[in-house]
Specification:
The protein is an alpha/beta fold and 483 residues long. 39% of the residues lie in helices and 23% in strands. The strands form 8 sheets. Strands 14-17-18-13-12-20-21 form a 7-stranded mixed beta sheet, with helices on both faces. Bound molecules: NADP nicotinamide-adenine-dinucleotide phosphate and glyceraldehyde-3-phosphate (G3H).
Length: 483
């Protein structure tokens, strides 16, 4: 059985079978740059969601008893299959979410690496034992064996911008930890997600362990999130959706990786040339459609006039156009997103920001835009654009940069550019964010580092080991040793 019904319609995956939905309905997926349909996925029903969760519950019971080495062998095959399919999958990622072909291929390779690292990490995670006599009044006759056990059925919900990588980054740790997974891909990204599941299905994973449930989040999302058969949710996406999910889900663990407004703080003693390179690559790759993109520059006013032309020169090197030509600046995921980004630029310009470069648009293609003299009354100082625009806020001191950084509703990452390592650490200590990068761009990888969003940027931790831990719980077995 295959994942396709016909030339452009894809099936969903449930209990080891590729199926068409009984709803008889599909969701059309429109390419952001071709602006035509690239295929349809099934709009599945609530009964089919029930069935997916039921089959996951059954399969998980046996999987939890399967040895780690056996689990590993399935997942190694999955990684190999992804690499064998990398050209095909990259082509689909490119068409479906408008990511440059080479970057799409890198996403697939990064995913295979992530799966392998997850396998190896899980194989090397060991429990601990504790003797009772270390506590006052305790006795050597008690021995606690602390091990990690799976949570059950994990609901994995992924965003459009890394449709393979950010999905597998949930599936691999969940499966290695002994869980089953119900996977809901983003609508733009669902075909890429289907191919990723096809690679896993080809590894002959026991049926029911993974289900692919497709359909619009606005239609099936709440039903999935509130379902009593789900034991944990791992979600990556926008802050609004994440907050909605957190309000709906009851009494189950949640890991939420959400939006960001990562600042690049440029001190007066920074290597400005180097900072400019990092800032522009951080801000504009994949048109700024990365949660970790640098989304504002907080530069000391003493060096601002020197930094701005350096930023402008770096932006002028960026290619603009089609993902088929590996352009850095590509059309945004849809017109609505482009309207939003344009609205932020218009608001800033109306309120007195200077356009250093850009402010040009063709449909959903927004040219890279650099805005100077941005102030706190402008929306672009605070909102996440998820597009290729970079506001510069001039500050008079480190303290002002920190105040503006921490006033944000978000707290994903921040970059600090300085030659003074002591200052860098002092600033890192007071920045309210999951990670602070010193003299480098904000980014998630390498993927075994803990990846954390605080405040509106999320809750819980991802990164290989942390994801495995979040999808398991500790269990204590106490041996009472007789005399
Ligand atoms: P999104 O609109 O929030 O969608 C994310 C996922 O949630 C999609 O699969 C979506 O399905 C689903 N969804 C929508 N409504 C739902 C509901 N009621 N219940 C359950 N699921 C629902 O985000 P996006 O536009 O795909 O991605 C961009 C955002 O994600 C940005 O804000 C970005 O910063 C953030 N992001 C964060 C990280 C991180 O690690 N911190 C990584 C990547 C992206 P549909 O597509 O069918 O609506
Ligand atoms: O979009 C959010 C991703 O987690 C960012 O990953 O920093 O590797 O691009 P990245």
């Amino acid at each position: 059985m295959t994942a396709k019904s016909n030339a452009s319609t894809y099936k969903f995956f449930i209990n080891g079978e590729w199926r068409e939905s009984k709803s008889g309905q599909t969701v059309d997926i429109v390419s952001p740059y071709l602006r035509t349909s690239v295929g349809q996925v099934q709009a599945i029903t609530q009964e089919e969601v029930d069935e997916a969760i039921k089959s996951a519950q059954v399969a998980q019971k046996e999987w939890a008893q399967t040895s780690l080495q056996d689990r590993a062998s399935y997942l190694y095959k999955w990684a190999d299959n992804l690499l064998d399919m990398q050209e095909v999958i990259a082509e689909i990622i490119m068409k479906e979410v408008g990511k440059g072909f080479q970057d799409a291929k890198k996403e697939v390779v990064r995913t295979a690496d992530f799966i392998r690292y997850s396998i190896e990490e899980a194989l090397h995670m060991h429990g601990e034992s504790m003797m009772g006599d270390s506590f006052p009044g305790g006795s050597k006759s008690k021995l606690a064996i602390v091990s990690r056990v799976p949570l059950g059925v994990i609901l994995a919900i992924s965003p459009f911008n890394y449709p393979v990588n950010l999905a597998a980054a949930k599936l691999a740790p969940a499966l290695m930890a002994g869980n089953a997974v119900v996977f809901k891909p983003a609508t733009n990204g669902a075909i890429s997600g289907t191919k990723m599941v096809e690679a896993l299905a080809k590894a002959e994973l026991p049926k029911g362990l993974i289900s692919l449930v497709t359909g619009r989040g606005s239609v099936i999302g709440d039903y999935l999130v509130e379902h009593k058969g789900i034991n944990m949710i791992s979600f990556t996406g926008g802050t609004k959706t994440g907050t909605h999910i957190a309000n709906k889900a009851t009494k189950i663990p949640l890991v939420l990786e959400l939006g960001g407004k990562d600042p690049a703080i440029v001190r007066e003693d920074a290597d400005l040339q180097d900072a400019a390179k990092h800032i522009i690559s951080g801000a504009f790759s994949y048109s700024g459609q990365r949660c970790t993109a640098i989304k504002r520059v907080l530069v000391n006013e003493k060096v601002a006039d020197e930094l701005v032309p350096l930023l402008k020169a770096e932006i002028e090197k960026l290619s603009v156009g089609s993902p088929e030509k590996d352009s850095v600046i590509v059309p945004l995921i849809d017109d609505k997103s482009a309207d939003f980004v344009q609205g932020l630029v218009d608001d800033a310009v109306d309120k007195g920001a200077t356009v250093v470069l850009g402010n040009k648009r063709e449909d959903n293609l927004i040219y890279p835009t650099l805005l100077d003299h941005v102030t706190g009354d402008m929306q672009v100082a605070w909102e996440e654009p998820f597009g290729p625009i970079l506001p510069i806020i001039r500050v008079s001191s480190d303290e002002e940069a920190i105040d503006i950084t921490n006033e944000s509703e978000f707290g994903l990452q921040a970059s600090v550019f300085t030659k003074d390592i002591n200052k860098a650490f002092n600033l890192a200590n007071v920045i309210d964010a999951g990670s602070v990068q010193i003299n480098g761009r904000t980014e998630r990888g390498p993927d075994h580092f803990p990846f954390i969003g605080v405040k509106g940027s999320g809750m819980g931790v991802q990164g290989v080991r942390k994801s495995i831990e979040s999808m398991t719980r500790e269990k204590v077995t106490v041996l009472n040793i007789g005399e």
